Amino acid sequence: MQGKMKRIYLDYNATTPLKPQVYEAMVPYFKELYGNPSSIHWAGQAGKEALMVAREKVANLFHVDPQEVVFTSGGTEANNLALKGVFGVFQKKWQKKGRHIITTQVEHKSILECCDYLKKQGAEISYISVHPNGQIHLEELKAQIRPDTILISVQAANNETGVLMPLKEISDIAQAHNILFHVDAVQMAGKKALFLDELPMDLVSISSHKIYGPKGAGALIIRRALKLEALLHGGNQERKRRGGTENVPAIVGFGTACEWAQKESASEAQRLEELRNKLEEGIFATIPQSLIHGKDSPRVSNTLNVSFKGLEAEGLLLNLDLKGIATSSGSACSSGSLDPSHVLLAMGVSPENALSSIRFSLGYQTQKEDIEFVLEVLPEMVQRLRSLNEACR
Length: 393
Fold this sequence. Notes:
Helices cover 41% and strands 14% of the residues. It is of the alpha/beta class. The chain has a 7-stranded mixed beta sheet with strand order 2-8-7-6-5-3-4, sandwiched between helices. Strands 9-10-12 form a 3-stranded antiparallel beta sheet. α1 (20-26) runs antiparallel to α8 (248-286).
């Protein structure tokens, strides 16, 4: 009888498994501590205290006041609350001041599709292009600023390539022009330090399930005194900024995940960078015509995006899966799409090469042996698929 196939998960940018301590922290709030945090009796007060502790843990990771943390259902809701909330307030109170928002061509779909929605509500959106290395053109950003610009929204780290954006320079530009600055930090949180007492930002989106917490929890950090139009009405929760009964178990898990990240993420990032570099160097050495995207830019430590010329990513993904290796061709939110990555196209990658790209994203369960196994099976797969494609022409 053959042994069970080894499973190697290299899709941590899509979602992460729960850390054991996160699961353990959540369990009581599914069972004994089930009270509604808005209730004044003992059961409700236990839930309220749990929210307070979790809020402090999230705040500590980013060096902000706990009252600046607004819990959401995840990164997508946080991004929507940031953009729609800012635009809504300006349209209500300062309509003449502005309706212009600046973002980039490589943002997550939750930003780009939110901008599409806001355009129908009267917003005007400018999309900044990026260099071939994936970072934005800062001079173009400056040139796009207008008297009616109300918000700049830029991701901290790209979800497909891992490329880090120059947040300090963007923050300086926003402050110099008195423009609000929103950062989608979903793919950076827990991988690289982001301290808001050192780097001024007005709004920051984060997600639990990208940092070993549960799905269904996230947060928008809203700096003190900033007013937003709420998306969800129907209660006084989150200081009237997000109505609805809080998902206490998920928020407790989220807080515990942030606590782990504060203590361990720096050393873990170094370990993952060594493994990522081993994978990158191995691919470059053994597979001709491989293109590493964002190679010349600072990247989060766990992410590698590579195109294999002469094949389509879908076939390679299926072959890797047959070997027990889970990877992706880009954002999980775009799975099922046959279109080339908008991120890679914006970087100047050809449609053909964009369709041949694979994203490897590593995490805490990734070991050296996993990388060695991938490097053992991947070259033969690529060669075989290239030969099949050539034979079909």
